[in-house]
Batch of 2 targets.
Target 1
Amino acid sequence: MNPAQYVWLIAFLPALSFLVNILFGHQLNRYGKRTGAYMSVAVMAVATLLATGALIQTQRAAPTWDKAALKDVIHFEEETLFPLEAQLRSATLQGAMQNRLDEIKAELHHAEDELHHLEELAQIRHPAENFPFKSEQPWLSMKGQEGIPIGVYIDPFAAMMLFMVSLVCLLIHLFSVEYMTGEDRYPTFFAYISLFSSAMLAMVMSRNLFHVLFFWEVMGVMSYLLIGFFYKKISAQQAMKKAFLVTKLADIGLLVGLFWIYKVFGTLDIPRLTELAPQVLIATPGIATAIGLLLFIAAIGKSAQFPLHVWLLDAMEGPTPVSAMIHAATMVAAGVYLMARAYPILEQGNSLGFIAAIGAITALFAALLAPAFTDIKKILAWSTVSQLGFMFIGLGAFGWIAAVFHLVTHAFFKALLFLCSGSMIHGSGTQDIFKMDNLAKYMPSTRWTFIIGGLSLAGVVPFAGFWSKDEILLSLKHAASDNAGYGVLLLMAYAASFLTALYITRAYIIAFEKPSEASPWDEAAWNQADFAELNMTKADLEADAKHDHLHLHDPPHESGWHITASLWTLAGGSVIIGLLGSPLFGNAFQSFIYKGSAPHIETIAAQIPGFIIGTAIAFAGITTAYILYMTNMVNITMPKQITQLLHKRFYIDELYYKFMVNPLTKLTTPTAWVDRRLLDGAIDFIAWGAGFTGNILKRVQTGRLDLYAWTIAAAALALLLGFAGFSLAGMGGGH
Amino acid sequence: MLSLSHFLVLAAILFAIGLYGVLTRKNLVGILMAVEIMLNAVLINFVAAARFADNPQGDLFALFIIAIAAAEVGVGLAIFLNIFKHTDRVTGEVLMELKE
């Protein structure tokens, strides 16, 4: 069966499980506390199976490439096609003669034919007839207008994303079954995360950018609800509002970008846009740049890039499985997905350099902050921001496949790390790594899976993160050979990699290997300043502890099978997925995703220097962390100003308050007066008037039915006589 | 041969009977029955006009009125039943107590 016919079920089933859980969740609980939860796990399992089927079928239908011949294709693209495109672009901009333009266009056309020929030669197996899988239903079409057709588009990229998202979401569902036990709104939680997964899956399979926007916004709402799941806490309320407002601000970019795309192309259909982009935008790189930047603004917000990263740290107010979901499979992945989908448009403009620069700034900046925090979830949050920066570096350095590869591997190891942190919090009763007491002794499964996730994040051979990060650095190196600016970004990326290895090792050592500095709930150990900053009171904290099922005075303990099973599965994914994209397995991942835009496929020999540098940096980071935190050989105390700067996150939140929130609040004071006095006054006056006339007229309402009937009858008779007299008079006049 | 006027006169008579009932009856059920008679008078007008003008719209209106009259009787009787439960009477005066 054609996957296009059944993939909709992958998104539809979790949406159904949302409805059942939200409407009948508490009734279902009568058949056992976890009935609704297990139902949504089962539904996600079915969705994952369907996604696996779609992935296998896509893999069967997709072309396979001969690597050596593919190198010829890429070489031809770089040496002949791209210069011709550049020539045409500059000729158009300089207003060259028409016949000169036609000449270049003809040449370009010829080169494209040649490219197609080369591509066909490079295919060991040609793609199937109906590849990539599509379906289309008319929607909102009126009188000959196309409307916005609804349908799915399953190319290798979408199939890969469907598989990754559904699998990671399934494991997070399974994890939550145990983790959220005892919560008042247990069914509601499962309803929310089901709809969250459903929206992400639907977005990934949509063929129309309008529906991408639609599901993008559904995710925005779900993240709002989930971040504020513990809505009784003031800090959670603030975090949910912040996340929603910041991402909505960025979404304006997406909306305007889509309007512009529709104006230029007359369609929002992804396959058609991909096809048309080079022809339509070739002569107008300015428009391509502008559209690219607008879409990038949306991605900055959704994927928490500098300077709109501020919401992500506060989003840690949500329950830990939600953090895992937001940070791995959904939400932040959506921004990268959008960029990768819009890549054919981005390629035509000049926004890529900017994207790479923002990515590099974010990657380095977040990696600098991560070692300054002691809350395990916040360390991982900064780590996500930093890793997303790497993905945008990849996108901006002409390696969108590398970015997608990193997106997928990151989803596995970051979900793993977050679920580990959940398990650590569950077992030990605190989020502060300094208060976690020698967890290695008590939580073996969590420890080993954390090590796998951490090594993957740090980029150590042969774990997933190594291969994908290496691929990004490779694209960056290629880009740097043409443009010195990318060289600077490469150095920043190296620095960020070093810090990544350092902060994750620090977190591991302090949480797992060292005894705690104080018992978690020791009054004296409270850092008053921290709580003041968070607007938290002791009562809040205790509520917090209850939410996370902290057993305040028990020793740490290993979590149950739901949690460890999800951890080990993700750990397996963190190893296998990376190997699929490694040269050891012939870059299977990259050539699967490949569709006519250069991946830098190299022989193993050419990649070895990169491997050595990457590994060296990772080990340098790990060793530094070991020396600093394990051995106590070196004891560095940071100057107070620097720690203060890091704890305040470079004062970026304060800047937002100073320059946006406070001026807006001031601006609203006079408008609030107008609203309260003038507008509300007018409305009150009208209401008063209605009441006044009503008071006068109510005397007529005697309540005596017979009187009403007589009045009606008399009035009707009077009307009748009046009409009769009028028409008689009229007839008389007519004669 | 029946002409349009025959029907109109029949309808007018029925309407007058109904109106008389509404004006003189004290019992709410009686008033409701009288209202139904008036409605049926209008129905006859519609159907007759439709037949003589050869335009099916009148028939359609008649169908609508029948359906809505059925619903209206249901609602009306339910209200009367409740009034009866509260006051043991079903006369128009009872409703005066609803005022303010």
Note: Chain B is about 80% helix and 0% strand.
Target 2
Amino acid sequence: MKDALFVYSPEQLGYKFSESHPFNHKRLILTMDLLKKIHALQDDHIIPARMATDEEIALAHDRKYIEIVKQAGKGLLTPQQTVSYGIGTEDTPIFTNMHEASSLLVGGTLQAVDAVMQGKSRHALNLGGGLHHGFYGRASGFCIYNDSSVAIHYLRKKYDVRVLYVDTDAHHGDGVQWAFYDDPNVCTLSIHETGRYLFPGTGNVTERGSGEGYGTSFNFPIDAFTEDESFLMIYEKAMREIFEYFKPDVVFTQNGADAHYLDPLTHLYGTMRIYREIPKLAHKLAHEYCDGRWIAVGGGGYDIWRVVPRAWSYIWTEMNDLPAPTGPLPKDWLEQWQTESPVSLFQNWEDPIPLYEPIPRKLEIEEKNAQMLQKALIILHGEIGKNKK
Amino acid sequence: MIVEEIMKTNLKTLSPRDTVKEALELMKEKHIRHIPIIDENRKLVGLVTSSTLKNKWNAFSNTSSSESEKIIEDVMIKDLITAHPLDFVEEIAITFYEMKISCLPIVSGGQLVGLVTASDLLYTYIELTGANKPSSKIDIRIEDKPGILSDILVIFKNHHANVLSVLLFPDSKEENYKIVTIRVQILNPLSIIEELKKAKFNVLWPNLPGITK
């Protein structure tokens, strides 16, 4: 069995709203090329994405909505007709063949699921997926079909396993959370910048699930300007406690790379350090609790030149038990992409020091985050947690 | 917004002849804290709440058997504050605040027709702020004079951005200014913010003293 498989098809780049839209899957090429140039990724690691069928997409989406997406992608509908479905907006404009492109991202994640569940590899990565904002009958925040929600339904239905979904995108993983809000066999864990200003606004600690699923949604809203230490303290504590509490059969991680200081859309102050550590712990706990079963997808990440390729490479090297790369980036990678990049590429795997001016109220932010962490986990230490065990 | 739009109508009720034990069990089973007590004509005659039961016996779960066999009529609140389905939500909010109550039975035509709890009221507030739908929030400090809101919203209109809520409140620091908080259904508000700034609006981005990004 291989350590890991990498899902990719060039057609996944067809998920493209416009030249100027911040969501740009050129990230996939930049990351793959970087991995190839450090000899971490070979051709026999790569499996193609496939189109998800309508039945599969309908596991998490309304048939009527799927029909709207199809027709919009064929140019049969105007934005006025689709806007109530969240399509044809500035965030999620209509583009040609949007159904096919979206289905391929969903199918890519299903390929990753099958690879792991059928024992072809211990772990699998579909960086084209991670579209966590998609709702049952509505597109939202750049996401048309929610590959992660479809894949988790698929895991439940086809393999009958308990799934832990971990979302470290800077935006709350709302679509996935609401899809499984009352399902006790799917636990969602999302760390994100607080919704006080940032989209989508939800993801408060008090969102804990409902009905049978009460106690299987966890939210860790961190303050704007949160830095590495505080982010990682929360991530580590939350991961260890929730793995131990929920005891999943498989872990599914969404790896948005937009909590970095340079990301234009968010206000967190992460550095490359968090992206080195995030997959490390996910990997370790996947082996401790899930017999290694770990499926990872991409997500947000809008500094596609300086941040995303390095951040996402760490997931793949970790999956393959390779040491996290350090030092200078490959010369040929820098030379090839600097010509296209509108910004100066960083020369090393590590961020330059210092990346930003010191934060004046660092201690207060850390203190506030620590309080939030306690509140979010209180349910594991109170009566409800005891009853469950 | 009127009360009948937010009140709960699918209510668990008991009769004055039922026992305290039944009330306690119903509260536990349905995760509720308030039970309206009605007679055979659905006329509201009383209310039991978890806090009044708790206060009476100090400990909720340790109610001794003789006490829990008591009938509800002997323990229920009879001196009730109620509201009408056509009351305004703002009005009952004041009642909640002034009377320090946590639940308000809604009565019409002599019958119990609904119930509003403090949590329902709070949820209505959340809905009013638009915070229950995917959105970004933008705070802007504006001069307190006619026409400004329209100037701002035209920028949102030009971006086809759907506004979920607009709250306007006085600036606590400067008398002639107000803060407008807009929830807008968009992940990427950067182009809107840029235009607001270009039009000389003071956008209060999530900022801390000494930090600009």
Note: Chain B touches chain A through 29 residues (CB under 8 Å).
